[in-house]
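Batch manifest, entry 17 of 40.
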Amino acid sequence: MKSFLFGILAMLCFISVRAQDSLPGLDKSPMDMSYYPVNYPILKIQHKADAPLIARVIYGRPQKNNRVIFGDLVPYHSVWRLGANEATEIEFFKDVKINNKKVPKGEYTLYAIPDTSKWTVILNRETDTWGAFDYDNKKDVLRVNVPVKKQGEPLDVMTICFTGNEKNKTELLMAWDDQEALLPISW
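Output type: C-alpha coordinates
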Protein backbone atom coordinates (compact mmCIF):
# COMPACT_ATOMS: atom_id res chain seq x y z
CA MET A 1 0.00 0.00 0.00
CA LYS A 2 2.87 2.39 0.84
CA SER A 3 4.49 1.82 -2.56
CA PHE A 4 1.13 2.37 -4.29
CA LEU A 5 0.63 5.70 -2.47
CA PHE A 6 4.25 6.67 -3.18
CA GLY A 7 3.68 5.92 -6.89
CA ILE A 8 0.53 8.07 -6.97
CA LEU A 9 2.32 10.90 -5.16
CA ALA A 10 5.29 10.74 -7.57
CA MET A 11 2.95 10.80 -10.59
CA LEU A 12 1.07 13.82 -9.21
CA CYS A 13 4.35 15.66 -8.64
CA PHE A 14 5.44 14.89 -12.22
CA ILE A 15 2.11 16.08 -13.65
CA SER A 16 2.24 19.24 -11.52
CA VAL A 17 5.77 20.08 -12.67
CA ARG A 18 5.00 19.24 -16.31
CA ALA A 19 1.84 21.40 -16.25
CA GLN A 20 3.99 24.41 -15.37
CA ASP A 21 6.13 23.88 -18.47
CA SER A 22 4.78 25.56 -21.55
CA LEU A 23 5.95 26.00 -25.07
CA PRO A 24 7.17 29.46 -26.05
CA GLY A 25 4.76 31.68 -27.97
CA LEU A 26 5.22 32.68 -31.57
CA ASP A 27 8.03 35.12 -32.24
CA LYS A 28 6.90 38.46 -33.66
CA SER A 29 10.08 38.56 -35.77
CA PRO A 30 10.56 35.02 -37.08
CA MET A 31 13.97 33.80 -38.11
CA ASP A 32 14.65 33.35 -41.82
CA MET A 33 17.52 32.08 -43.92
CA SER A 34 18.74 33.04 -47.39
CA TYR A 35 21.22 31.13 -49.54
CA TYR A 36 23.48 31.67 -52.52
CA PRO A 37 22.88 29.97 -54.86
CA VAL A 38 19.27 30.96 -54.22
CA ASN A 39 17.16 28.01 -52.98
CA TYR A 40 20.29 25.88 -52.60
CA PRO A 41 18.78 23.30 -50.17
CA ILE A 42 15.84 22.63 -52.51
CA LEU A 43 18.13 22.42 -55.53
CA LYS A 44 20.39 20.05 -53.60
CA ILE A 45 17.66 17.55 -52.68
CA GLN A 46 16.33 17.68 -56.26
CA HIS A 47 19.87 16.98 -57.53
CA LYS A 48 19.74 20.25 -59.50
CA ALA A 49 22.48 22.14 -57.64
CA ASP A 50 25.02 22.86 -60.35
CA ALA A 51 27.16 25.14 -58.18
CA PRO A 52 28.54 24.78 -54.64
CA LEU A 53 27.04 26.63 -51.70
CA ILE A 54 28.74 30.03 -51.38
CA ALA A 55 26.91 31.85 -48.57
CA ARG A 56 24.03 31.71 -46.11
CA VAL A 57 22.42 34.49 -44.02
CA ILE A 58 20.33 33.86 -40.90
CA TYR A 59 18.33 36.80 -39.58
CA GLY A 60 15.23 37.86 -37.63
CA ARG A 61 12.51 39.43 -39.84
CA PRO A 62 10.97 42.39 -38.01
CA GLN A 63 7.78 44.00 -39.28
CA LYS A 64 7.08 47.68 -39.81
CA ASN A 65 3.66 47.65 -38.09
CA ASN A 66 2.98 51.31 -38.93
CA ARG A 67 6.16 52.44 -37.18
CA VAL A 68 8.77 54.91 -38.40
CA ILE A 69 11.75 52.65 -39.02
CA PHE A 70 14.88 54.53 -40.09
CA GLY A 71 15.80 57.48 -37.92
CA ASP A 72 13.46 56.29 -35.14
CA LEU A 73 13.15 52.55 -34.38
CA VAL A 74 16.51 52.05 -36.12
CA PRO A 75 18.49 55.20 -35.27
CA TYR A 76 20.81 56.74 -37.83
CA HIS A 77 24.55 56.61 -37.06
CA SER A 78 24.20 53.69 -34.60
CA VAL A 79 25.21 50.06 -34.97
CA TRP A 80 22.17 47.94 -35.82
CA ARG A 81 21.95 44.15 -35.75
CA LEU A 82 20.44 44.25 -39.26
CA GLY A 83 17.23 42.54 -38.23
CA ALA A 84 15.61 41.59 -34.96
CA ASN A 85 16.44 39.46 -31.93
CA GLU A 86 19.72 37.58 -32.42
CA ALA A 87 22.26 39.51 -34.45
CA THR A 88 22.21 38.60 -38.14
CA GLU A 89 24.85 36.08 -39.14
CA ILE A 90 26.41 35.39 -42.52
CA GLU A 91 28.46 32.33 -43.34
CA PHE A 92 30.76 32.03 -46.33
CA PHE A 93 31.57 28.50 -47.45
CA LYS A 94 34.61 29.70 -49.40
CA ASP A 95 36.81 32.79 -49.38
CA VAL A 96 35.04 35.79 -50.94
CA LYS A 97 35.82 39.41 -51.74
CA ILE A 98 33.84 42.38 -50.54
CA ASN A 99 35.00 45.79 -51.71
CA ASN A 100 38.15 44.13 -53.10
CA LYS A 101 39.05 42.86 -49.61
CA LYS A 102 39.43 39.14 -49.04
CA VAL A 103 37.03 37.72 -46.44
CA PRO A 104 38.07 34.23 -45.32
CA LYS A 105 35.61 31.34 -45.32
CA GLY A 106 33.73 31.30 -42.00
CA GLU A 107 30.88 32.71 -39.91
CA TYR A 108 30.44 36.40 -39.12
CA THR A 109 27.90 38.68 -37.52
CA LEU A 110 26.49 41.19 -39.98
CA TYR A 111 25.78 44.69 -38.66
CA ALA A 112 24.93 47.98 -40.35
CA ILE A 113 25.16 51.64 -39.44
CA PRO A 114 22.30 53.27 -41.37
CA ASP A 115 22.43 56.80 -42.69
CA THR A 116 20.17 58.64 -45.12
CA SER A 117 22.46 58.15 -48.14
CA LYS A 118 24.60 55.12 -47.21
CA TRP A 119 24.86 52.18 -44.87
CA THR A 120 28.13 51.08 -43.34
CA VAL A 121 27.97 47.28 -43.48
CA ILE A 122 30.13 45.49 -40.90
CA LEU A 123 31.34 41.90 -40.69
CA ASN A 124 32.38 41.00 -37.15
CA ARG A 125 34.05 37.85 -35.77
CA GLU A 126 31.80 37.61 -32.68
CA THR A 127 28.85 35.31 -33.41
CA ASP A 128 25.90 33.93 -31.44
CA THR A 129 25.00 37.26 -29.86
CA TRP A 130 21.75 39.08 -29.19
CA GLY A 131 21.19 42.45 -30.82
CA ALA A 132 24.13 44.83 -30.95
CA PHE A 133 24.44 45.26 -27.19
CA ASP A 134 27.87 43.60 -26.92
CA TYR A 135 29.15 44.82 -30.28
CA ASP A 136 32.94 45.22 -30.19
CA ASN A 137 34.48 47.08 -33.14
CA LYS A 138 37.87 45.51 -32.33
CA LYS A 139 36.42 42.26 -33.71
CA ASP A 140 35.45 43.82 -37.06
CA VAL A 141 36.76 41.98 -40.08
CA LEU A 142 35.38 44.43 -42.63
CA ARG A 143 33.57 47.76 -42.88
CA VAL A 144 32.25 48.93 -46.22
CA ASN A 145 29.94 51.78 -47.21
CA VAL A 146 27.15 50.92 -49.62
CA PRO A 147 24.65 53.38 -51.08
CA VAL A 148 21.09 53.22 -49.81
CA LYS A 149 18.22 53.99 -52.13
CA LYS A 150 14.53 54.60 -51.68
CA GLN A 151 12.12 51.87 -52.75
CA GLY A 152 8.89 52.75 -54.48
CA GLU A 153 6.60 50.75 -52.22
CA PRO A 154 7.45 50.42 -48.50
CA LEU A 155 8.26 46.86 -47.45
CA ASP A 156 6.47 45.81 -44.26
CA VAL A 157 8.68 42.81 -43.46
CA MET A 158 12.44 43.22 -43.50
CA THR A 159 14.10 41.07 -46.15
CA ILE A 160 17.67 39.94 -46.74
CA CYS A 161 18.39 37.84 -49.81
CA PHE A 162 20.96 37.24 -52.52
CA THR A 163 20.24 38.63 -55.98
CA GLY A 164 21.64 38.13 -59.43
CA ASN A 165 23.08 35.04 -60.99
CA GLU A 166 26.25 36.28 -62.62
CA LYS A 167 29.21 33.94 -62.58
CA ASN A 168 31.37 34.38 -59.47
CA LYS A 169 29.41 37.26 -57.95
CA THR A 170 26.17 38.18 -56.24
CA GLU A 171 24.72 41.03 -54.21
CA LEU A 172 23.25 40.79 -50.76
CA LEU A 173 20.01 42.79 -50.79
CA MET A 174 18.99 44.28 -47.43
CA ALA A 175 15.57 45.97 -47.59
CA TRP A 176 12.98 47.28 -45.17
CA ASP A 177 10.40 50.03 -45.17
CA ASP A 178 11.31 52.40 -48.02
CA GLN A 179 15.07 51.68 -48.06
CA GLU A 180 17.32 49.10 -49.66
CA ALA A 181 21.06 48.55 -49.84
CA LEU A 182 23.13 46.14 -51.91
CA LEU A 183 26.41 44.58 -50.76
CA PRO A 184 28.47 43.24 -53.72
CA ILE A 185 30.17 39.89 -53.05
CA SER A 186 32.52 38.06 -55.44
CA TRP A 187 34.74 34.97 -55.37
